Structures are given as structure tokens and as C-alpha cells.
């Protein structure tokens, strides 16, 4: 995998952990989400989950895994993305 992820701007702790593990991290906000979802350049998209239904994530067809960070630690999110790589 490319080891490149997109992380919602509010998840700074997630960004820091992934960067410390060698990932390239692009940050995005709500207005950029539809563009990010349609991109094929990411291994995973990490969202805060606060606007999940409002933004239509549940209906989105994308080949890129979308991980809802609600209730998860940064380490748990990293573990999930790492499992996707194998």
C-alpha cells in the first residue's frame, strides 16, 4: 500500500500518530469530504463521525476504507489501518 491516509482536521492526535509511523497524512474538513471520498490515492479515510449521516458517508460507494474514529483511540485506528495493509 501507499501508506497515505486522509484524516479529518479535528483529529490532530490521529495525524500525529500516523506521521510518527511514516504515513503521509492529508488533512481535510467537512467541505472537502466529497472530494476526498472520490479520490483513489488514499489507503484509508479517517472521519470524526460527528457528521457521518449528514455528509452521506453511509451511502458512499468508495474503494477506500472509511474509518469512523468515534470512540476509538488513535492507536486503535492505526491498528485497523495496519490490518488493511495485509
Automatic annotation (TrEMBL):
InterPro entries: UPF0180. Pfam families: UPF0180. This is YkuS family protein.
Amino acid at each position: 500500500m501507499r501508506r497515505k491516509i486522509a484524516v479529518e482536521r479535528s483529529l490532530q492526535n490521529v495525524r500525529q500518530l500516523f506521521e510518527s509511523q511514516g504515513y503521509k497524512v492529508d488533512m481535510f474538513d467537512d467541505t472537502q469530504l466529497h472530494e476526498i471520498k472520490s479520490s483513489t490515492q488514499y489507503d484509508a479515510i479517517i472521519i470524526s463521525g460527528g457528521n457521518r449521516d449528514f455528509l452521506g458517508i453511509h451511502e458512499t460507494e468508495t474503494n477506500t476504507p472509511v474509518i469512523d474514529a468515534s470512540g476509538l483511540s488513535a492507536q486503535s485506528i492505526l491498528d485497523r489501518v495496519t490490518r488493511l495493509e495485509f
